[in-house]
Specification:
Number of strands: 9
Helix content: 25-40%
Distance between the termini: 20 Å
Order of helices and strands: EHEHEEEEHEEHHHHEH
Shape: globular
Largest sheet: 6 strands, mixed
Low-confidence stretches: 105-114
Number of helices: 8
Radius of gyration: 17 Å
Strand content: 15-25%
Structural class: alpha/beta
Mean pLDDT: 92
Length: about 240
């Protein structure tokens, strides 16, 4: 890699996140930068044993894995952009409702070991206490990361959300089944691959793109049931690309 090339490292939950965004972002981000993805195959903010005290170590380890597996150096990385699904993490407990759901039809089996369904007002789950615990953990971690501007020592860091998940924002489909995610990802890539700046316009759609500064968007998504509704602040990151 040439010395002038720096890596913009995106940390994402799954391969369909990469499939949706990698080609488009590589065409938008300037030629003196390289877009790379670290897929973690899950939601680190909801993972057993992860909490607000050790989340920095978790992220650092993922960055180190990326560096080692790709034979890079830490100094090759310009910044780290972390993309997360909100999954209703900040809603009040009384909006989590017990429902006997068939796990074979769950729209979120990729991420959790129990049955769960979402709409824009409630979470329905077989085991309500599990979701309450998950949300407490996830919200505490996300709050800490939203106030974080560096990781792994001095690497610039930003965390951007899709609510309640990426498919909800990109396709207005909140309940995409696991096996459908790949189809939607490739459709999205095909739609914008040849006109990547149309993707920027799409991501600024006032139906779901939040305005204000970075902190404002995080304050907003934490309120009421907003973390279940169709919102994103990824447009704020996209607005910075030309001046990075």
């Amino acid at each position: 890699m040439g010395e002038s090339k720096k890596i913009v490292l995106f940390i994402v939950e799954g391969v369909t996140d990469k499939n949706s965004l990698a080609l488009i972002l590589s065409k938008i981000i300037e030629n003196d930068k390289i877009v790379r993805f670290k897929i973690i195959n899950g939601d680190m903010t909801a993972e057993n044993g992860v909490n607000a005290s050790n989340i920095y170590t978790k992220i650092t380890n993922y960055i180190k894995e990326f560096i080692v597996s790709n034979v890079y150096k830490k100094s090759d990385i310009l910044n780290v952009i972390h993309l997360v699904d909100m999954d209703g993490a900040f809603i009040k407990d009384d909006l989590i409702i017990q429902k006997d759901i068939d796990s074979s039809n769950s729209n979120d089996t990729r991420k959790y070991n129990h049955s769960i369904e979402y709409n824009t007002e409630n979470i329905y789950a077989k085991n309500v206490s599990n979701i309450k615990s998950r949300n407490k953990q996830k919200s505490q971690i996300l709050s800490k990361l939203a106030a974080t501007d560096t990781v792994y020592g001095d690497l610039p860091y930003g965390i951007y959300f899709f609510s309640s998940n990426l498919e909800h924002v990109m396709h207005n489909k909140q309940g995409v089944l696991a096996y459908e995610k790949s189809k939607y990802a490739h459709e999205f890539e095909d739609k914008f691959a040849e006109s990547p700046f149309s993707f920027v316009e799409f991501m600024n759609n006032p139906e779901f793109a939040l305005t204000g500064d970075y902190k404002d968007t995080w304050d907003f998504i934490k309120k009421d049931a907003n973390s279940l509704k169709r919102y994103t602040n990824f447009n704020i990151y996209l607005s910075t690309i030309k001046t990075e």
